[in-house]
User: Fold this.
Amino acid sequence: MPSGTTLRLRASGGPSEQLLLLLNDHRVMTTDQLARATSTPARTVLYRLEQLRAAGMVDYDRPGRHTGSAPHHWWLRPAGARLITGTALADGRRPSAMFSAHAATITEVWLALRDHGPPAGLTMTGWATDRAGWQEWDGPTSAWGGTTTKRLTPDAVYEAVLPDGRATAAFVEIDLASMTQNQLKAKLDRYRAYARDRAWRGRFPHCPPLLLFTTTVHRAVTFTRNTAKHLREEKRSTLYQRHVTDFDLIAEHGRLIVAATGLVRDPARAVTTHAWNLTDPEAAETTITAILTERATIATAARPAYHREHAAELARLRSHTLRDLGRHPQQLESSLGPAAVDLLAYLFDRDHDPRNPFTPVLDTSSVLAALADWWRHHPDDTATAKALRAAFTRAHHTAWSHQVHHLAHLANGGDDRPAWYTAAARLARQRLLTPGEHRWLDQSRSREQAQADVWRDWQPSNRHYGTRLTYPQWRDEHVDQRWRALSWWQRHHTHRDTLTAAFDDEHLTACARCRLTLPTNDTGNCPGCHHHQRLPHTQRHSITPLADLITALLAQTADDP
Assistant:
């Protein structure tokens, strides 16, 4: 049956419940520590503890009582733990004398930091001991790959804010002359792994320094000297030197700082005085506030470096994604449409030349970044795909309109080049001119040059001549033969130009795109515009002139995409 004390605690809590909460957080506390922690007279605290002990919730021991008077060291029993946490985490067994002394010392450090930290410039915001302060992370097992779960078990984790509001943190270790230097080295190795794996990122504002409270100054100096050898530290360069790189800032931000003091039995002095030895043998003794302020300063200085590092990594990932999409943009057609595919193929063409007048000035950095993020993270997000499709369609229309206007500018110069018909035909299909086509247009020949090349390479198909004939010479020879074969009456009713025109209609064709005149025995693509389709010579005037093609394109540039 529950006792009266238990029923009162369940009903209203009160000061006795606060004692149970403190014992649950700190494992072992003395009567004096509980009195200072609750700002209550020690006699009152002792009375309440005796009541809780009578209810079976707490118990005490007096380690070292055979050497003289010793304070009561209190701890929770299963009933008290069950009342506070809902589970009986405490096993109720009497802790060993060393455990009690160790736990009580951790509590004394907590009280010193809580009470004497604010005047020294450190306002406590967090304190976690035992399992609450343990750190677990997945770290690499070796340089060849693989991960494993690692664990760091500090005696306490201390968090505070400086007077200017910057957050800081530290790991606290207590050594009551019970650990050898080898044991301390093994513990240090775990801290080094924690710092090397950057496991503190996202949890603390900087890599928390290791603060070791030990029994004597000699032990503190020995530990820091051995630590310096183990870490192989070189003299740290100041942040105020020139040419400090982002890598330097980030490395300094993640560097493990180790400090030790011999004032474990007087933690109040350790908090307020210059009592801390660093691993740098040239450094003078310093204060906890100075150590944590320096770490917070490093964190502030490194923050822009992390932003730049993150931006560079994000840019690298985006570039890799866009490079893959540029190789196979067709996979985006179903989601973003043909305009996006055409524009991406154009932007990622290796021959892209921004100096070419056909190249439009487009600010596509934001939409390309959005595309890369969408494709990497949420390719099934239809809302984002719809927004990207609209953005790419607008950008494509802008680029397409620019190329149409530049082609119109060229055509307005009075020249008529067969290659321009090809450009107009591609633009008419709402396709951008590729960078390769830009160069081809710049180097294209005039209609007269292209036609001259046709006749220069032409040869008669049905006769071998000792001397090379031009087409007009060959045509005139055949026309003369036909003219001589006519009767007097036929010659009187037939004009020689009629025979010439009939011969041209029989032996010539016209390119169906640029109207370039080609012989019938030439079956290759048009040398002017590379088009393959031909029309009879009599239909050459039915081909749409370049000016009309460009006029139709210019009318479409005003349309809203």
